[in-house]
Specification:
Layout: E1 2-5, E2 8-11, H1 15-20, E3 28-31, E4 35-39, E5 49-53, H2 65-85, E6 90-94, E7 110-115, H3 132-142
Antiparallel strand pairs: 1-2, 3-4, 4-5, 5-7, 6-7
This protein binds adenosine monophosphate and zinc ion.
The site of adenosine monophosphate has 12 residues, from loops.
Length: 146
């Protein structure tokens, strides 16, 4: 069920909406009118942070452009802060969309995963290869016209 709470659309059965609403505690890093950043409770690496829109949306397509813009401004703020506060060597920005991609919580979120030399994580597996013909065809097919 969707309610309008404090100017935000809220789903009763969504963990992240309940965090936004203060019903579940979180380790808050930053918040503003449209976004919230907090530590992932089950981190991949030290400092793993999630950034979410305060207005519930399952994925990026369902979000208003202004909320997408606000979200990535917050991602940049958190990354800038991590650069000075953590001794990280790099980071991954990850969005899982759909169960096949590993999305467990159906409230859009961007993972900011600090990376450290020898942290043992490998995101670079290549499970597919395209021929040049297929690359050509795909570039035409996916070409953005809107
Ligand atoms: P995803 O698989 O992309 O849907 O990621 C969901 C993430 O939310 C996982 O990394 C979880 O560890 C994290 N998570 C689940 N519940 C909480 C919570 N209450 N506070 C912080 N992070 C959470
Ligand atoms: Zn939600």
């Amino acid at each position: 069920m969707t309610n309008k709470v404090l100017g935000c659309y809220y789903m009763d059965d969504c963990i992240f909406c309940r965090i936004i609403n203060g019903e579940i505690p979180s380790y808050t890093i930053y918040q503003d009118e449209k976004t919230l950043a907090f530590l992932d409770i089950n981190p991949n690496t030290r400092g793993h942070t999630l950034v979410i829109p305060k207005k519930h949306a399952k994925n990026i397509i369902d979000m208003e452009d202004t909320d997408v813009e606000a979200l990535f401004r917050t991602v940049k703020k958190v990354v800038s802060s991590m650069k000075v506060s953590l001794d990280l060597d790099g980071l991954n920005l990850v969005v899982n969309q759909g169960e096949v991609a590993g999305q467990v919580i159906h409230h859009f979120h961007c993972h900011i995963i600090p990376r450290y030399v020898d942290d043992g994580i490998n995101y670079s597996s290549k499970g597919y290869s395209s021929s040049t013909e297929e690359l050509e065809e795909l570039a035409g097919k996916i070409s953005v016209n809107i």
